[in-house]
Amino acid sequence: MVNPWLAMAPGTDPAERSRAVRRAHEAFVADGSVAATVRPVVAESWRRSAHARVPLESTVPIDLTGTELEEYRRAHPLARAMPVVRELLGGIAEDAVHLFSVCDDQGRLLWVEGHTGLRRRAERMNFVAGARWDERHAGTNAPGTALTVGHAVQIFATEHYNRRVQPWSCAAAPVRDPHTGRVLGAVDLTGGDHLAAPHSLALVRATARAAEAELSAARPYGAVPRVALTALGQDQALLVVDGRRTRLGPRHSEIMVLLAAHPEGLTGERLAVELYGERADLRSPVTLRAELSRLRRLVGPLLVSRPYRLCGPVLTDVRAVADQLAAGDVHAAVRTYRGPLLPLSEAPGVRRIGRTLEDALRRAVLDCRDGGLLRRWADTPWGEHDLEVYETLLAVLSRDAPGRQAVLRRTERLRAAYGLGASPPRPPARCPSRPPAPPTRPCPAPAPPALVPHREGRRPLPAPGTRA
């Protein structure tokens, strides 16, 4: 098929296609093999789902409900785009027999609307506002996979990893901040086999672009920086200059992160040390100058020399997290933090900046002692082996809190993996000799993380079987 994001080529029999993919899914579950009939985007998603140990038959968790959900989506940037989304996808929902939804960048459904009968059916698998439909929780599905790969995609019937979702088909497209390029969430169409046709993919892509245009028009002139750099949770940074997006290579990503963190500029010698560390003296200055020359061809007058620096303010997601922490808004900082800074980078300066930011954010989450924040942190790849986070979460949960037993089991497994034995006994819920515990909210405002050489402090234990 010419377009790898489409579920089926025109003229394909949906029933026959569904049977073929179901057989391939059963084979993958049995021995990990992937048949040639499975699209590469689906095969890679199946592998991610298996690695995340997504259950084959389960109901996705619900993260947000009630007032918390209302407040969260009222403050979300995509709320401004909902009128245009409803106009494009909702006007024909009853006649076309489909649902449309909008999720945030973590895969949480914020709005689910459309055909009344389908909504009742979808509720049985928790396809509802507040539920978590990223790949780590729901397996292969259109909104979760679109967020992961950063591209519009269709998922047809048995291509879903979770068998409970296989009666459905869907198409979704990511929505980006028009000024920074950061993914804000995704728009999705969900329904029957008819959504595997090319028009549904085109429709969600057009809706996503219309939502971005709406967000662009809603911003007052001059309120958004001209230059933005997104580098958290991705190996290649995204640079946006006046709305033009450029995906940088690994070395150029490192240079831009370092220069953005040092607006006063860096000499060639200092930049070489930040990039190469102890190997700096082995690298010819010509090599660094060549890299900078190639970068200048990409970014133009944004990069100047003597010393090397970026000409003008640059909005980075690293600074956004730091500013949110400085303001005491730990919830916003956790939402903005999409993962370690350039995870594959070995540049000492980049690793130091990333470690300093992660340490400050992690400590703020621990100090908040907020069950929701702790759960969210523990549910990430960078927090799932953090014993201190799990022990703190266990301490703040009441004995009858939903999911507490799962947290307790996970804590015991981590303690056993680290050779620490059983967890110490938990103190009584009420102790007459102690004053009541202070409320968990609002979170205390932590000191802003300085992007300077990292001072070693207490770090989470490494994942079992990995090096410290």
Automatic annotation (TrEMBL):
> What residue spans carry the Pro residues bias annotation?
424-451
Q: Which Pfam families match?
A: GAF (PF01590)
Q: Where is this region: Disordered?
A: 418-468
Where the record annotates domain GAF, the positions are: 104-214
Concerning InterPro entries, the annotation shows: GAF, GAF-like_dom_sf
What organism does the record attribute this protein to? Streptomyces pactum
- This chain belongs to the protein called GAF domain-containing protein
